[in-house]
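Lab meeting, item 3. Inverse folding demo.
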């Protein structure tokens, strides 16, 4: 059996984290190493999908739910509601946790970088 992901362990209360909200199928937490003034993560409760490409193929409604939840979070955690979504997909693209998650980056991002 593979080890539970860090997000599953957080969801199970084994590792502390700042949980910001949840629905039946997704939850959100603050990233431990923020790369923007607001850096949140939206994560499906199920670890079934490794990355966003697998998720899009297997459960597009869940991907849509993640994006809707990201929008709600940005509305709550920023003045303007604007946000950038990042899905690192594969180790060579910077993915370190293979339990699909969206990075929600916000809070006055003015540069045009996509990274
Ligand atoms: P990835 O590199 O897979 O795209 O994103 C994983 C993210 O999870 C990273 O931004 C990293 O900072 C975050 N992360 C890793 N371990 C923890 C943790 O224990 N708690 C929280 N809140 N975030 C974590």
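The presenter then showed the designed sequence:
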């Amino acid at each position: 059996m593979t080890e539970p992901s860090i997000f599953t362990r957080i969801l199970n209360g084994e590792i502390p984290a700042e949980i910001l909200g949840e629905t039946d199928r997704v939850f959100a937490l603050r990233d431990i190493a923020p790369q923007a003034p607001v850096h949140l993560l939206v994560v499906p409760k199920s670890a079934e999908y490794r990355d966003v490409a697998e998720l899009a193929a297997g459960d597009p409604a869940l991907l849509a739910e993640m994006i809707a939840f990201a929008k709600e979070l940005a509305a709550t955690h920023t003045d303007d509601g604007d946000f950038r979504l990042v899905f690192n997909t594969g180790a060579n693209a910077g993915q370190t946790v293979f339990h699909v998650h969206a990075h929600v980056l916000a809070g006055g991002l003015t540069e045009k970088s996509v990274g």
